[in-house]
Design goal:
Layout lengths: L2 E5 L4 H13 L3 E6 L19 E5 L5 H11 L3 E4 L6 H6 L2 H23 L3 H6 L1 E7 L24 H20 L3 E6 L1 E3 L8 H10 L4 E4 L5 E6 H14 L5 E4 L4 E3 H15 L14 E4 L14 H7 L7 H14 L1 H8 L10 E2 L2
């Protein structure tokens, strides 16, 4: 049994990672999460009573708190998912992104380095620091045949992607300078159950069934490579378990879609699944409205995931069609989860510490 400390474990991808480990392995998980607006303990409801789960409400920018948690739980590995991650929010207020994604990663790296250096030789050799990042650090692609590889130069476009690029560089520097055994992964756009409602897919689902306009930036021609979140969690576990120290692995879903096509596909699924929720319209796509594009909007992301496929044997299980149907059905069946977020009630749910 290994012990994994997962930062940001109450967030979208983090909670999927926690559920995967609890449900598919015999390992133990300690979640460290500040519980900001995007951290939601109800996303962990299915595992929160498991004796292999523990929760600590803490800020990765607080060195004393982080060091105390490391000393208390003695994790075998750290999976760093805590981050501010919404591009629009980074444009409106970049300070939180600089603080969490850069200063927070630096603080976590330093606490982890000192913890690692004091481990026994065998524990020190087995320890891993896995930094989970994004394909947005690469900027965007020009030709339709181009793909992001692990060697693509960084060219971030937004305050969000620039802050994540900075954190990637810090992790590599701590490996090169101090020998900290690190792994880095850069993933494409995730989607699936428990996705925070400000992102494209859940926002489209919830606005459509509420009869609200479905705002699409520009003409909706921006292309993203979509990755089902449970596939991503499985890939992350393969990397932390079998990945080579100091290496980077790109994780993609092999599902390139224009934003407008994603929105229209959601509308078609809702026409099939909940036609009764249409309010005075014949089809949900009639709610689509085009709005001014956001500043610095990247046009195309696409991942070359051949390295993780060849070296670690991972491939996504879900097609975009199967994953999107599961996602739409989940949101239709779990109104209590997303309704509390929309009403901001979930922010009052705080559990200081859960010890197992």
């Amino acid at each position: 049994m290994k012990q994994y400390l997962i930062t940001g474990g109450a967030g979208f991808i983090g909670s999927a990672m926690v559920r995967y480990i609890i449900n598919h392995t015999h390992d133990r998980v300690i979640v460290l999460d500040k519980l900001t607006y995007a951290g939601n303990l109800s996303s962990l409801a299915s595992v929160i009573d498991n004796d292999r789960f523990a929760f600590e409400q803490a800020d990765i920018c607080d060195r004393q708190q982080v060091s105390k948690i490391l000393a208390q739980y003695q994790p075998d590995a750290i999976m760093h998912l805590a981050a501010e991650s919404h591009v629009d929010r980074s444009i409106d207020g970049p300070a939180d992104f600089i603080n969490t994604n850069i200063i927070g990663t630096y603080t976590l790296l330093e606490a982890s380095r000192h913890y690692w250096q004091d481990l026994s030789p065998s524990a020190k050799a087995a320890f891993r620091f896995h930094h989970i990042s994004t394909d947005e650090v690469f900027g965007d692609l020009n030709g339709s045949g181009d793909f992001f590889t692990e060697n693509t130069p960084y060219a971030p476009s937004s305050p969000y992607s620039a802050s994540k690029a900075s954190s990637d560089h810090l992790v590599r520097a701590w490996h090169r300078t101090y020998g900290l055994p690190v792994l880095i992964t850069n993933c494409s756009n995730n989607y699936g159950p428990y996705h925070f409602p400000e992102k494209l897919i859940p926002l489209t689902i919830l606005n459509a069934i509420s009869g609200k306009p479905l705002a699409v930036y520009g003409k909706g021609n921006q292309i993203r490579d979509w990755l089902y979140v449970d596939d991503h969690a499985e890939a992350l576990y393969q990397v932390i378990s079998k990945g080579y120290i100091g290496e980077t692995y790109n994780i993609g879903g092999h599902n390139e879609r224009r934003n407008i096509d994603v929105v229209e596909q959601i509308c078609a699924l809702l026409d099939e699944l909940v036609p009764e929720k249409r309010q005075g319209i014949a089809h949900y796509h009639q709610l689509i409205t085009f709005v001014s594009d956001r500043p610095g909007h990247d046009m195309r992301y696409a991942i070359d995931a051949s390295k993780i496929e060849h070296e670690l044997g991972w491939r996504p299980k879900e097609t975009f069609e199967s994953g999107l149907r599961k996602t739409v059905e989940w949101f239709l069946q779990n109104e209590t989860w997303w309704r509390t977020i929309i009403d901001h009630r979930y922010q009052g749910e705080r559990l200081g510490t859960i010890h197992r």
